[in-house]
Amino acid sequence: MVSPQRTQLRSLDNLISMERKMLRHGLARPDMTAQELREFTKTIRAHLNLPALVLPPTRPLITLISRARSPNTKNASKPRRYIINEADIAHKLRFDTSLDVQLVNLETLSIKEQITLMGRTSVLFGVHSSALLHVAWMRPGSAVVQLHLPNTQLGSHAHVQRDGILSWYSGVHPSIIMNIENLAEKAGVRYFDCWPNKTVGASKKVSECSSKKTLSMPCLSVVQQEEIIFRETDSIIVDSEHVADLISKLAALV
């Protein structure tokens, strides 16, 4: 097994791959229990010499996950599902509230820094992606807001229940179907959905898929159409006032 102290781990995927036992766990498994999740997070924290108990911050911490590419990441010129006006959300929260707000690209943090940040986070906001698996490290009673792309409900109970068998057994990539809502439920984290005002990049391919008279591999089902939206959306615009208002209300409850 690779020692975490000697490895520059940058993502949860890399950390899980460190040990076959962890790899088999599967944070997105629909039948995962709360006890399994507690044992998993306890094991990871022990590997990284992190404290098992994380004390809440003196004032609520809002963490906004940025998908803007830093110069040191791969495909720096091609961000996907990037919220164009993410800075507006952060600015409004800082200006209108006394909350501690961080807009952060998780790829710039080590895995230890990511876990520590999530343990302190009161409300987490981000677009559906593997980054939201970090709800596993959040304190019970905290909250996560998952931003969906239009015409999708990826990462929620609604998505998995609608096409459960196809989702889990047809070879759809795990990042598409991972149920963040289920993970939040097991972690004792409050879960909320929201949708953007506008997206750029995917509409043409979806319309091409919808217009086909016969089924093909890229257009097999609604799941595949959602995957196209997920993969091809370049940027997103949200109602920053609405999102900031939702987050501030949630912060008052945690």
Automatic annotation (TrEMBL):
<dbReference type="Pfam" id="PF04577">
    <property type="entry name" value="Glyco_transf_61"/>
</dbReference>
<dbReference type="InterPro" id="IPR007657">
    <property type="entry name" value="Glycosyltransferase_61"/>
</dbReference>
<dbReference type="GO" id="GO:0005794">
    <property type="term" value="C:Golgi apparatus"/>
</dbReference>
<protein>
    <recommendedName>
        <fullName>Glycosyltransferase 61 catalytic domain-containing protein</fullName>
    </recommendedName>
</protein>
<dbReference type="GO" id="GO:0016763">
    <property type="term" value="F:pentosyltransferase activity"/>
</dbReference>
<dbReference type="InterPro" id="IPR049625">
    <property type="entry name" value="Glyco_transf_61_cat"/>
</dbReference>
<keyword id="KW-0328">Glycosyltransferase</keyword>
<keyword id="KW-0808">Transferase</keyword>
<feature type="domain" description="Glycosyltransferase 61 catalytic">
    <location>
        <begin position="31"/>
        <end position="145"/>
    </location>
</feature>
<keyword id="KW-0325">Glycoprotein</keyword>
